[in-house]
Specification:
Chain lengths: 474, 474
């Protein structure tokens, strides 16, 4: 028996021919899907029940052929929010760069273990190259570091766990955390999972323009300290999910320095605008942060599951996360490349680095910068157009690429009108927006982050929004 | 401008032709890699410095062509522990089923958001189908549920966070957790990240056969309670990483019931042997657990990054993890399919479900069962062969597929001899073993979990281990 053919008797080891056939079929499915994106609906849930039923069948004992399986999966993809399409302007659009999908195909097939560098030095270096590039982008000093996470939630979690360990020690229930009421819910969630009681979370008021009120922050910190509590952690948002507003980071940094707080930037949505001149101006002061959450699956247009946490002092990150084990004794200690497992909650995890590194190396940094600059321009176009249209209420000029808006109907309940307006816009299936609550009022929002969204679709969005409002406001 | 061609002016949107070329190249790289696995070294770090240097270059402004990039990546894969190859018998081998790599390629390209069901009902159902299948496999009752995680570490974390919330409330620093000294370090790490101080962790002694000492457990719990502490969490190992030993789960369950503890099974390594008759016998009592950690990237041979947590009561999982947010108000409430984001620490994350579901649907359950049964058989073959060889000390008969062993040299320091023995075996580059400490002594261990490890390679391993010992013991 030839060594290379020996696997064919085992069903889990398809022959080279079978692998090629399956790969070709998948390639065909995916390329056709991507080619069809500009024409496909921005959202389509009609008949979703049918695909749920189809995909709800338990696995059989003996399997079934791949072409039918792939077809079922493609049907499932069609009945969904079209997160990868140009009309997806809801929530924070995810990415889905083709090069990242190819990267994951290879990464999963090679299946190297990157979380201790010694097990795959080149691949661990790929992740470290990404982290170093990010640390440099944000002006973090030598000694800085970071980890790739599954997303912003886990990055915020590790930031809080690190700050807790560094600043409070094991008896931390009197520690208090500060963030504006506009902050992403993942911060509260991370704090609670890290063991903080609800009573330790401080929602700092926002100013009318939705940024953190720095004076209120200072007063709250001082009052808590006077009450015997231990203020230790403050969040500056580098672009909130709600409105895209950027907190005055340098001012928050002043308070953090004066009051001895760990300064964390939640830049999950907005961070990569640091690649642009406009972003760097808005984020002035971010280089003073102790930690920064970034989501490459947002601003770098990568697939969901690609987050990161940068830290000013990688020794602190490691001290908060490291636990030894006898069965890992064969692994070399840290070298130039860290053992990421020692600096994160995860031991085994996917090789996230390749899907950041490959698109970045392939397309070059400028391609990302240009795409982000384009998004900022498109946002201004949409904002100006709606603002100049009678009836539209745009009270928050965009810092980045989120535009919250309402419509003031000539009669009837405004709240109800705006809910119906959202439904009507989304019924177009050419664009898909979402909503939020700001100052206890229902607000529609447009968020332009997809790399596939260009001028034509934004103009179409403007037309659809205007005409939907006009039709409802007769 | 034709709609379908509009993307070509944007570098992040390659044409269909470019996508096909890149996909074909990746397919070729991966199929050649997999075809070469039986002949390639089990470990190869010679010249790793060179690939580290190569892959350490920061991204350029304008990118570079993909064929060179893929070649660099393939060079990085070669200089590593060959985690996907048949000779990898170290740590807990990872998987790397080809079908899973194809699944991730599609999943990343489609880039659907599965963590709230309404955004992609069919794909959320795919994950729920997997979870339901797992709950059924372990005999969990109606009302059970679970989540897919990045691995066992995060599954253990969510188990502890859930138990903490359900049993202790917000002021939990007097809670105490119990697990045998043979338990995986991720349990301690998870407890510490969830806020428990070191003083709350109880290492229960192991019996001479390395299982948890159930009587010692009971006494420790009772003493702690008498001291005013709140015992609340106990771990039963369904296969330890160190030795593969299975704790007497039914006996631990009795203590848990009598003492009111949350019963958690860490079945990250061993859980999928539940598919086999031998596994089900060993795991008797596991259906009583409140939570079970499983790693499909181990026992289902999937790529790293594919873990899961099963819970008896999915309402408790949700209560511990749920935080609301205004900008998610458009999402439908839970239906038959849960919003996984509400039951896990993560909001955005990768679509892990497809890389479990697709191989399972494609190959069928029986292919996995047969592969696991084969691993149990191969382990017995290796154990019997070494045990019958003079000089080898095999004091722990394998429950599952880990064989810890030592060699008793005729003269000299045994500890030193065994360290040299490991080096010599691994220098063969045909098999790769690791070591651990048991009872403060250095022990080699073989762990047979790769789906690509078959009888031929195990016989080769036996020959290499025997001849290496004989050569050293002249």
């Amino acid at each position: 028996m030839n060594e290379d053919e020996a696997g064919s008797q085992y069903p889990l080891e398809p022959s080279a021919q079978e692998m090629r056939a399956m790969g070709e079929h998948a390639l065909d499915v995916l390329v056709r899907f991507i080619e069809g994106l500009r024409a496909s609906p921005a959202v389509d849930l009609d008949g979703a029940d049918e695909v749920v039923r189809l995909l709800g069948q338990p696995p059989s004992e003996h399997g079934r052929p791949f072409p039918g399986l792939f077809d079922d999966v493609a049907r499932g993809a069609a009945k969904a929010f079209n997160t990868t399409g140009p009309g997806y302007l809801a929530f924070i659009p995810g990415g889905g760069l083709y090069a990242a999908a190819v990267a994951d195909f290879i990464a999963c097939g090679f299946n190297r273990f990157v979380n201790v560098w010694h097990a795959a030095p080149g691949f661990a270096q790929i992740e470290w190259t990404v982290i170093r590039w990010l640390d440099d982008l944000f002006g973090l000093p030598p000694g800085s570091g970071g980890i790739l996470t599954s997303g912003g939630s886990m990055a915020n979690f590790s930031a809080i766990a690190t700050a807790r360990h560094a600043r409070l020690g094991e008896d931390f229930l009197d520690g208090t955390l500060y963030f504006s009421a506009q902050t992403h819910a993942s911060v509260s969630k991370a704090a609670i999972l890290a063991g903080f009681p609800q009573r330790s979370l401080r929602a700092v008021p926002a100013t009318p323009d939705l940024a953190i009120d720095v004076e209120a922050l200072r007063e709250m910190v001082q009052k808590d300290r006077a009450d015997g509590l231990r203020p230790f952690f403050v969040v500056a948002n580098a672009g909130t999910t709600n409105s895209g507003r950027v907190d005055p980071i340098a001012d928050v940094a002043d308070v953090a320095r004066e009051e001895g707080l760990w300064l964390h930037a939640d830049a999950a949505y907005g961070g990569f605008f640091q690649l642009t001149e406009r972003g760097r101006t808005l984020f002035r002061g971010i280089e003073a942060c102790d930690s920064i959450t970034l989501d490459p699956h947002k601003g770098m247009f990568l697939p969901y599951g690609t987050g990161s946490l940068l830290v000013r002092d990688r020794a602190q990150l490691r001290e908060a996360h490291h636990v030894g084990a006898a069965y890992l004794q064969d692994l070399f200690p840290e070298s130039e490349i860290p053992n990421f497992a020692d600096s994160s909650p995860e031991l085994s995890r996917d090789f996230r680095g390749l899907r950041v590194w490959l698109p970045l190396q392939l397309h070059g940094v400028d391609a990302f910068r240009a795409a982000l600059d384009e998004k900022l321009d498109l946002t201004q176009v949409l904002y100006d157009a709606l603002r100049s249209t009678p009836g539209f209420d745009l009270r928050w000029p965009p810092d980045l690429t989120v535009v919250p808006f309402r419509y003031r109907p000539r009669s009837g309940n405004a709240e109800e009108f705006n809910r119906r307006l959202l439904e009507r816009i989304n019924a177009s299936k050419r664009v898909f927006l979402s909503s939020t609550m700001i100052d206890d009022r229902f607000v529609l929002r447009v968020c332009i982050v997809s790399f596939r969204t260009h001028r034509d679709r934004v103009e179409e969005a403007i037309d659809i929004i205007r005409s939907s409002a006009a039709e409802l406001d007769r």
